[in-house]
Amino acid sequence: MICVKVTDLIDVLKMKKLIGNLDPELNIGKISQDSRDIQSGDLFICIDGTQVDGHNYVETAVANGAGVIVAHKDIQKAAANVPVVYVPDTGKAMSLLANHFYGYPSESMKVIGVTGTNGKTTVTYLVEAILKAMDKKTGLMGTIEMHIGDEVHKTKNTTPDSITMQKALHLMTERETEYFTLELSSIALEMGRAWGLDLDVAVMTNLTHEHMEFHHTMAAYAEAKKLLFSQLGNGRKNGRTKAAILNADDETIHSYRIATAAEVISYSVKDETADFFATDITYSRTQTRFNLVVNGERYPVVTNLVGLYNVSNTLAALAAVYALGIPLEDATKAVTSLAGVIGRLEIVPGANDIGVYVDFAHSPDAMEKVLGVVREFTQGRVISVFGGAGEREHEKRPIMARIGTELSDYVILTTDDTGKEPQEQIIAMMLAGIEKDNYEYIENRKEAIQHAIAIAEPGDTVILLGRGHEADYNDRGTMIRLLDSEVAAEAIELRNEQKV
């Protein structure tokens, strides 16, 4: 059990005003932003979030026995006799306190942070697979789950709050984790969830249209991503200089070059002057092959991930581990150890005469890339199933509907996490972007998937887009289980039975 003297913990905060008297003998056994989680002597920190303001729950924290409270709004009346530490920014204070409370765990590991619109999950899984093949002790945190060695824990967010992150990192240090790879979303970076994280390598995959409901403009979105590279710094850690891994095929690369003081390693599938360049690229329905060129040397690479965008993801992962000292001769051979990533062009087995895939693509760029890859290895028709998520990013709905109908032979429009927004409004926005007549609309997503697989003919490919690994489905405000791969597997079984 962790216990930290309250005076030592609060001393971490440079700019603060203390109202009341701290008990010098008080040992803090927990810090939390959830008043319901507070017990006797714990530290409660008031976070003013996007939906809930912790300053409104001080009385609950006091009733539960809080020993000290950190805030940036006046809570003196609610705090009663509990000492309050006022700070300019409780979000930043939380990251500083959490880092100190858990013993600065990231300092003892090699940390790779991955950001970008698309490809974050795939890059982190590739890095983990390569390092595991080298018999390294690894940890991973991202959109799908958290790994501590071979342990798997489900996650709620791509990047958790700083307390949750530092607690997980502390657990990893107890398991002697050597390498930690994590996804860092733009929202998490802007909200400061990664503050206190001591990075060795920062990776940028790409920047395309996403999260406009939060950032509002592409310029603001890009600036949020840059925070990772500013945080990287230019010092040494674990005996090595830090490195920024940047995609030379993304037009924003220059702005990221000047955002970091660390050494830059570029990668490309187009520009042979990049530090890591892929050439002689070929791929099938199940594998991709290419030659990696670094410093004039060629390294053959075989990956079970399909498509040009996955070549780019593989280059990013290889550059990241290379920056940490892993020999390319070993890293390139280890790439094959990753069989695939859940919900990322994931094959649903069992269909003998058609291909069925599930993919998380939920942005215009991701959809365009996935459908382009599927088209190249499909002999028959490409049948896609997708919807528009409710309550966010209205402007991308017609764009994605247009891309889907233009790059597919047939489209079945359906729902995707409607939330409380009327489905009629969502589908109307999608239809506004369609100029072709190669589609139909089936509101029930399960029925839409079943129909797509039922009408597929030999040689066709059915691609289920937008949800990937996600099983929690928001149906008009009610959460139900709906996993595309499970629904598809049942539909394939029924199709096979009918063909007997």
From TrEMBL:
<protein>
    <recommendedName>
        <fullName>UDP-N-acetylmuramyl-tripeptide synthetase</fullName>
        <ecNumber>6.3.2.-</ecNumber>
    </recommendedName>
</protein>
<keyword id="KW-0963">Cytoplasm</keyword>
<keyword id="KW-0132">Cell division</keyword>
<comment type="pathway">
    <text>Cell wall biogenesis; peptidoglycan biosynthesis.</text>
</comment>
<feature type="binding site">
    <location>
        <begin position="158"/>
        <end position="159"/>
    </location>
    <ligand>
        <name>UDP-N-acetyl-alpha-D-muramoyl-L-alanyl-D-glutamate</name>
    </ligand>
</feature>
<dbReference type="InterPro" id="IPR000713">
    <property type="entry name" value="Mur_ligase_N"/>
</dbReference>
<feature type="domain" description="Mur ligase C-terminal">
    <location>
        <begin position="343"/>
        <end position="468"/>
    </location>
</feature>
<keyword id="KW-0547">Nucleotide-binding</keyword>
<dbReference type="Pfam" id="PF02875">
    <property type="entry name" value="Mur_ligase_C"/>
</dbReference>
<dbReference type="GO" id="GO:0051301">
    <property type="term" value="P:cell division"/>
</dbReference>
<keyword id="KW-0067">ATP-binding</keyword>
<feature type="binding site">
    <location>
        <position position="193"/>
    </location>
    <ligand>
        <name>UDP-N-acetyl-alpha-D-muramoyl-L-alanyl-D-glutamate</name>
    </ligand>
</feature>
<feature type="modified residue" description="N6-carboxylysine">
    <location>
        <position position="225"/>
    </location>
</feature>
<dbReference type="GO" id="GO:0005524">
    <property type="term" value="F:ATP binding"/>
</dbReference>
<keyword id="KW-0133">Cell shape</keyword>
<dbReference type="InterPro" id="IPR036565">
    <property type="entry name" value="Mur-like_cat_sf"/>
</dbReference>
<feature type="domain" description="Mur ligase central">
    <location>
        <begin position="114"/>
        <end position="321"/>
    </location>
</feature>
<dbReference type="Pfam" id="PF01225">
    <property type="entry name" value="Mur_ligase"/>
</dbReference>
<dbReference type="Pfam" id="PF08245">
    <property type="entry name" value="Mur_ligase_M"/>
</dbReference>
<keyword id="KW-0131">Cell cycle</keyword>
<dbReference type="InterPro" id="IPR013221">
    <property type="entry name" value="Mur_ligase_cen"/>
</dbReference>
<keyword id="KW-0436">Ligase</keyword>
<dbReference type="InterPro" id="IPR036615">
    <property type="entry name" value="Mur_ligase_C_dom_sf"/>
</dbReference>
<dbReference type="GO" id="GO:0016881">
    <property type="term" value="F:acid-amino acid ligase activity"/>
</dbReference>
<comment type="similarity">
    <text>Belongs to the MurCDEF family. MurE subfamily.</text>
</comment>
<dbReference type="GO" id="GO:0000287">
    <property type="term" value="F:magnesium ion binding"/>
</dbReference>
<dbReference type="GO" id="GO:0071555">
    <property type="term" value="P:cell wall organization"/>
</dbReference>
<keyword id="KW-0573">Peptidoglycan synthesis</keyword>
<feature type="domain" description="Mur ligase N-terminal catalytic">
    <location>
        <begin position="30"/>
        <end position="102"/>
    </location>
</feature>
<dbReference type="InterPro" id="IPR004101">
    <property type="entry name" value="Mur_ligase_C"/>
</dbReference>
<dbReference type="InterPro" id="IPR035911">
    <property type="entry name" value="MurE/MurF_N"/>
</dbReference>
<keyword id="KW-0961">Cell wall biogenesis/degradation</keyword>
<dbReference type="GO" id="GO:0009252">
    <property type="term" value="P:peptidoglycan biosynthetic process"/>
</dbReference>
<feature type="binding site">
    <location>
        <position position="185"/>
    </location>
    <ligand>
        <name>UDP-N-acetyl-alpha-D-muramoyl-L-alanyl-D-glutamate</name>
    </ligand>
</feature>
<keyword id="KW-0460">Magnesium</keyword>
<feature type="binding site">
    <location>
        <begin position="116"/>
        <end position="122"/>
    </location>
    <ligand>
        <name>ATP</name>
    </ligand>
</feature>
<dbReference type="InterPro" id="IPR005761">
    <property type="entry name" value="UDP-N-AcMur-Glu-dNH2Pim_ligase"/>
</dbReference>
<dbReference type="GO" id="GO:0008360">
    <property type="term" value="P:regulation of cell shape"/>
</dbReference>
<feature type="binding site">
    <location>
        <position position="157"/>
    </location>
    <ligand>
        <name>UDP-N-acetyl-alpha-D-muramoyl-L-alanyl-D-glutamate</name>
    </ligand>
</feature>
<dbReference type="GO" id="GO:0005737">
    <property type="term" value="C:cytoplasm"/>
</dbReference>
<feature type="binding site">
    <location>
        <position position="35"/>
    </location>
    <ligand>
        <name>UDP-N-acetyl-alpha-D-muramoyl-L-alanyl-D-glutamate</name>
    </ligand>
</feature>
<comment type="function">
    <text>Catalyzes the addition of an amino acid to the nucleotide precursor UDP-N-acetylmuramoyl-L-alanyl-D-glutamate (UMAG) in the biosynthesis of bacterial cell-wall peptidoglycan.</text>
</comment>
